[in-house]
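Q: I'm building a small set of examples for a reading group on sequence design. Run inverse folding on the following structure and report the sequence directly after it, with nothing in between.
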């Protein structure tokens, strides 16, 4: 069977796209989807602990979103410019997207924050992006935190009042252009309750790129070229996953990003080994999962690689039906929206 991108389309009323997070992270709704039967339950995210058993392992992505959107002016002319940081090449050299691009010829210079941060265009690279060198005093991350704004997805049009609400409470390693949104539902108190129940927590890092929002333009799914993202699987996390599997317990991935790290490592077979690199793994129906047993995730865009990954785990028809139910029940969608837990026999853990 040839999978078409349009096979992953569903109708979504625009008013269901969440424009801001709830005041209480863990109060989001939670749809529980049984991958075997397709049945669903409606809960709240704080109920997630009831679906996790002693000895299970949660894997979280501890990447930290950079306030990577900068507004400045061109040196000399004062023309307005917008930078969006994509990837760090060296200490002070970054690949960026600029708007308007025509103002950014090689050698052009720009000022941000009354000159607190300066940038010079070194080269024109992939897809018209620019390689720029920044000049500043002090620590770059601190300068960026003062001057930058969170690079919210294009479907969120409301200004975010609190930058921390686009970070997980366990964010640690700066480098993402977007949040691993499944993790936004956790609070420190909920994580403490989970640990107290005897559930293990392990961390991976995957720096989320803007490619996560890129629409799939290919007519056939297999023709889509997946974006590449940098990841780290620490030794202690690999060992934790291996021990969990040896004991017959479940590995529950928090988000598609953590899933991509684990399944990239799992392609070499078990047991997992510590590794670092770039992954462009593309998981869609027909692909096998080697590591994860269940997935916590948000409700994703139609025809996106993310809904394809969830469909690979639970079946396309089950997922699309669950999304229809979510629309009927007015769930909140996308980055600041509600969550799903997907797996089999989730209550008993069998």
């Amino acid at each position: 069977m040839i999978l078409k991108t349009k096979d992953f389309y569903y109708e979504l009323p625009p008013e269901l796209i969440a424009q801001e997070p709830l005041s209480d992270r863990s109060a989001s709704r939670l749809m529980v989807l049984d991958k075997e039967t397709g049945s669903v339950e409606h809960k709240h995210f704080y109920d997630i602990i009831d679906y996790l058993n002693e000895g299970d392992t949660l894997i979280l992505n501890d990447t930290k979103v950079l306030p990577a959107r900068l507004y400045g002016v061109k040196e000399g002319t004062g023309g307005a410019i917008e930078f969006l940081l994509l990837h760090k090449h060296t200490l002070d050299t970054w690949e960026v997207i600029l708007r308007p691009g025509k103002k950014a010829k090689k050698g052009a210079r720009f000022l941000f924050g009354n000159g607190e941060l300066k940038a010079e265009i070194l080269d024109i690279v992939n897809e018209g992006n620019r390689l720029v060198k920044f000049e500043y005093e002090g620590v770059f991350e601190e300068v960026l935190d003062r001057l930058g704004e969170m690079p919210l997805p294009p479907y969120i049009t409301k200004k975010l009042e609190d930058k921390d609400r686009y970070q997980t409470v366990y964010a640690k390693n700066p480098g993402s252009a977007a949040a691993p949104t499944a993790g936004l539902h956790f609070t420190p108190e909920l994580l403490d309750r989970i640990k107290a129940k005897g559930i293990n927590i392990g961390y991976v890092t995957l720096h989320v790129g803007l490619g996560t929002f890129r629409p799939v333009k290919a007519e056939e799914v297999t023709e889509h070229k997946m974006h590449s993202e940098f990841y780290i699987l620490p030794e202690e996390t690999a060992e934790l996953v291996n021990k969990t599997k040896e004991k017959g317990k479940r590995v529950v991935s928090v988000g598609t990003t953590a899933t991509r790290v684990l399944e990239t490592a799992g392609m070499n077979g078990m047991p997992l080994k510590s590794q670092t690199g770039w992954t462009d793994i593309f998981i869609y129906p027909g692909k096998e999962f080697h590591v994860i047993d269940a997935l916590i995730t948000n409700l994703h865009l139609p025809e996106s690689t993310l809904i394809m990954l969830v469909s690979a785990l639970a079946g396309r028809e089950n997922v699309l039906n669950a999304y229809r139910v979510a629309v009927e029940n007015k769930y909140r969608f996308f980055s600041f929206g509600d969550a799903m837990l997907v797996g089999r026999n989730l209550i008993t853990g069998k």
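The chain has two domains: 5-65+162-343, 69-147.
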